[in-house]
């Protein structure tokens, strides 16, 4: 774009939105999926919980991983907390794998436990603007008392356990996620093509090396649990470059990965207007995600890659209402491109009840 995609004003607005003051947490757990079950796997991070929903037809060939955002909780995956997408995928005869935890991890193998010179700040340093209480998650020890190893977990420990204990296929899987989980999904498909043939990014940060992005992400990690981005990967390091979808686009092309790339317009839906946070935080966060995603689209198009579906709705901010709508539109595409390859012209089996379900209105607090 003329003058560079990352206008300082846009980045500044997003940075302000991600500051620890007034950060909006997601709603408390309501009704979780009654068909989901806990699946624990040992790893270097300890015993890690994953939630599993079996495909309606009982197959073990079609598998999709759902990745959370920066505010991932330690009890349930956000897709189960906030949406009906796991149930909709199961109706499409897809097995659903939902890793639990990994706040601010980007699902990466970090360089070191998160700290600031060996110290982690007290949550009470940053009281909430609204309640006076400490910022949620700053007393979290995940990734601080040990090193995050999420890429290793998802592509080795969990992968092997799903195959050996549940009989799930460990090839031609799908993976998609929101925000930081969107960029992670593309990374897994780029570097682990033997496992993932399909990747989707919903409001992902797909040009992480763009001007101002590391500073914005630094404050995002501070806001979501008090994490230090330098403990994940040093600025300008090979690891940081490896994490940037804009930089590894050629690997996705070489793998012929089927992609679903989406971001909202940053224009709020009517339902969003009742929430000040959806406007103050959700709009600038989605504007940054949209700019990143459009830059990534331009890169793919310049390289002549067309094994991709783009989804840019005319409304949508950085929240679960937007992502649920997008994910529902993605379901037929993902159903066609995972598992054993279909014969030419064949279509996947229809949903178990003839409809995807999970069609919820836009809205809900912003997340990142």
UniProtKB/TrEMBL annotation:
Protein name: Esterase family protein
Biased composition (Pro residues): 341-353
UniProt xrefs under InterPro entries: AB_hydrolase_fold (IPR029058), Esterase-like (IPR000801), Mycobacterial_A85_antigen (IPR050583)
SUPFAM superfamilies reported for this sequence: alpha/beta-Hydrolases
Pfam families: Esterase
Keyword field: Signal
Region (Disordered): 336-368
PANTHER family with a match to the protein in the record: DIACYLGLYCEROL ACYLTRANSFERASE_MYCOLYLTRANSFERASE AG85A (PTHR48098:SF1), ENTEROCHELIN ESTERASE-RELATED (PTHR48098)
One GO molecular-function entry: acyltransferase activity, transferring groups other than amino-acyl groups
Transmembrane intervals: none
Gene3D superfamilies according to UniProt: alpha/beta hydrolase
Source species of the chain: Nocardia yunnanensis
Signal sequence bounds: 1-30
